[in-house]
Amino acid sequence: MGVLQLSPHTLYSIHGGKSLDPFLLSSTFSPRPFFSLKPNTASPASTGSITRSLAFFNPDIFSSRLYLVKGAPGMQFSARSSPASVESVTENSMEDKSEETPVSGDSLRRRFLEFYASRGHKVIPSASLVPDDPTVLLTIAGMLQFKPVFLGKVGVPAEHIKRMGEEDNFWTSGITGPCGPCSELYYDFHPERGYLDVDLGDDTRFIEFYNLVFMQYNKLDDGSLEPLKQKNIDTGLGLERLARILQKVPNNYETDLIYPIIEKASELANVSYALADDHIKMHLKIIGDHMRAVVFLISDGVMPSNIGRGYVVRRLIRRAVRTGRLLGIKGDGKGNLDGAFLPTIAEKAIELSTHIDSDLKARSSRILEELQREELRFVQTLERGEKLLDEMLADALSSGHKSDSLPCLSGKDVFLLYDTYGFPVEITAEVAEERGVNLDMVGFNIEMEKQRRQSQAAHNVIKLAVEDGDLSKNISDTEFLGYDTLSSRSVIESLLVNGKPVIQVDEGSEVEVLLNKTPFYAESGGQIGDHGLLYITGGEHKPRAVVEIKDVQKSLGSIFIHKGIIKEGALEVGQEVEAAVDPKLRQQAKVHHTATHLLQSALKKVIGQETSQAGSLVAFDRLRFDFNFHRPLLDTELEEIEGLINAWIGDATVLQTKVLPLADAKNAGAIAMFGEKYGEQVRVVEVPGVSMELCGGTHVSNTSEIRAFKIISEQGIASGIRRIEAVAGEAFIEYMNARDSQMKHLCSTLKVKAEEVTTRVKNLMEELRFARNEASALRAKAAIYKASIIASKALSVGTSKSIRVLVECMDDVDGDSLKNAAEYLIDALEDPAAVVLGSCPDEGKVSLVAAFSPGVVNLGVQAGKFIGPIAKLCGGGGGGRPNFAQAGGRKPENLSIALEKAQVDLLSVLTEKAS
Fold this sequence. Notes:
This protein is of the alpha+beta class. The chain is 38% helix and 24% strand. Strands 1, 6, 7, 8, 9 and 10 form a six-stranded mixed β-sheet that branches. It has a six-stranded antiparallel β-barrel with strand order 16-19-23-22-21-25. A six-stranded mixed β-sheet has the order 34-35-36-37-39-38, with helices on both faces. A hairpin with a 5-residue loop joins strand 21 (532-537) and strand 22. Helix 8 (278-299) packs antiparallel against helix 9 (308-326), helix 9 crosses helix 12 and helix 16 (583-607) crosses helix 17. The radius of gyration is 38 Å and the shape is globular.
């Protein structure tokens, strides 16, 4: 295939020789009609003709869409009208009709031409009866004049076509999947330069604005191509790029699709975009681009977080925030200097896009609230991280200067900023680049991998790839019978021990069993796998083999892996077994799964329809439900949620389950479960009037089987993600019995009635608080007494004015008392004075404090900067104000060394400053 180059002159011909009119940039393109009606001057015998535009979409299906059409002599852009307009034309046409007067031929011709012209087709003059075609004597059909078009002889000049190879003109949807050759259309801003050896990568001259993919292949794992069952043409036009061409602006950002957002950012930054240099313009473009993306992402339910899509949103927001700060934006532009500025800019982005996404306006308050929270939260992180990063970069630059090498920030430091202070690596990289410092990303990745290994939870990933090959190629999918029965006669298809296929497994061995059919539910959709037994009966109904199944997982596809241990006898491939699910545990899974559906519906009713599922666990003893929300739920909200669910349980509603085409299920309003993949046919579980979800899990038949529902916890697990844990059914009764037992024990211990427990605990807490205050006051007095003893150890520094310096260890004094001692000493020694104290209040813990008087601070020596390197020697860190700072560490064995260094450094720097 090739790419088509269009010059300004080419677009001129596309519009039928008229001047370029910009499209009306709205949800529906409605350009001016590009047709003209002309009388036939070629031959009085001709009735006229019309060219029918060849659309890529069926006009009976798609309305109000922009598409590219081909006609003669050139191409044109056309927007077909809505189906309603067809009816109106027909009605108008009928007005000319009467019973007395027959419809005239001229009227028929006119109505025919007007009908198609009103739908964006081009009417051209009639052809002469004497054709410019040596193959025919006379014009015998209306299509004859278009014969050169069909043969490819009225068309694009050869020099405007550049043929390229697979690397440039073959499109794939991924490593595998639908693909095919493509043609790209480029606009040429400088046709005067000629077309010899043109470089389409030169974005100062060319811009690709249209692409056609002839989707005809399916790419397989081995890279081979097979014909696609449903071949098609995938066509896409870049709206911003076409707007740039027709609006005659230098880049996509300056079209009316994005520029108003940039203008709002310019207003807040108090700069003129037109007069700004390229650096400032780049910052403003970043904000305009990122804000539009973030608005749509949050509207679609993607909340800022540290994983997946949420991390993309958080990264975009944080980059926009920092960019705004670099531009000098302060406050929200509405008088609040401590307010967030992103919501103000987002309002403009929402205003521009409301007409193409009606949900934006309805969700605008949530979008703006989320942006405000995320910006203000990040500003705090940014300020903490920027201070530490500045120190790290200064150290890196100093080290690089001393060693005459390229300055580089260590991977450990980058990871510390990311892990401890929440400072994004991308922003660290941007700031470092501005200062001329590289990042040790290899070291950072090593630190990240260490953390992953330490914190990664176990994942049940089942692969049937074994030493002798891929077993899944020889095993068909398992037939699941568990919706209708809890037992079945099944055949052992394969046995695995430690991932290796075996023929027989003996008693006492752990084994993975693959059956041809099973009543066991395999873990999916948040619901854990069933437990139960596989057994083979011998003579006189005595068991010959018993396997206890403790987990069931799915491999790629739908092969069920039954994991268990052989309690009696032995198993062999090919044997028939009785598979029996534990009915009590299955019932508890069903209860919790249906309760999860009720919980999601209740959440939407109480806190808003925009909340959505972000994960779930359906276990035998509890359920867990993660959802998007920006704050903790109030006690009253939790009570309302519980009340709704228990009311639905009491309604004893019969559940309805059916299998539908995916499109029909979605049109009916069914909610998709988080993280699930669906085929063409889906299972829909409905609690009529309450909930409808796509779900392959097991459920109760009637809500009354749930018996009761209780929330046991609600907490945040990530930014914008909350988690509810709850119990229902038998687990609810066990939970309430345990709570009752605990309350009885507490009443016995406190020697009060249940209704008096709260008051008694409050009184005890008050007594404890008073005792702690007394103990703290005594410790402070003891610390000050110790300080008065060591005050005489202060050293004098300087010639013109003596500076008192005291660095001492105060044994096991706690942090607060250490602070009191330092404050006492700085007053007792009088200005100028510098005090550094250390202690080991607990095992594996170091406390440090530095107090400098005004006279020392005025010499340029600051406590906050001084204490950090000292704390590092003790395996920690810290900082504070110029006159007072605190720090901590985890290596008490290094405290004496750290204090020695503190004394040496203080004496050295103060001697130099005071001389």
